[in-house]
């Protein structure tokens, strides 16, 4: 079953276009990406309400994501081994503390970027 049809008054069937420079387009698209919105939704929110609520949208870079995926695979293997044999790796506590430290660092780096003004709500410049 598909999505219910919107009422005629709620449908966005009229297009509005305007010209921007390549640099302006990149700036709009980057701001929309940081806000977790499409460029259309971002511009619409800024123009019609003068406000923009930014969803927290922290994304890991690919290398960090890949490392977390690899760690998850290894932890899954260790968990299966522990469940099957009762063997628990001797340094598991040390490794887990290190993983927690690295994740906390990544989170704090993301918070530092957010507090630097990258995702501040629109104030009606």
Automatic annotation (TrEMBL):
Species whose genome carries this gene: Nitratireductor aquimarinus
InterPro entries linked to this entry: NikA-like (IPR053842)
Record-given protein name: Plasmid mobilization relaxosome protein MobC
A Pfam match: NikA-like
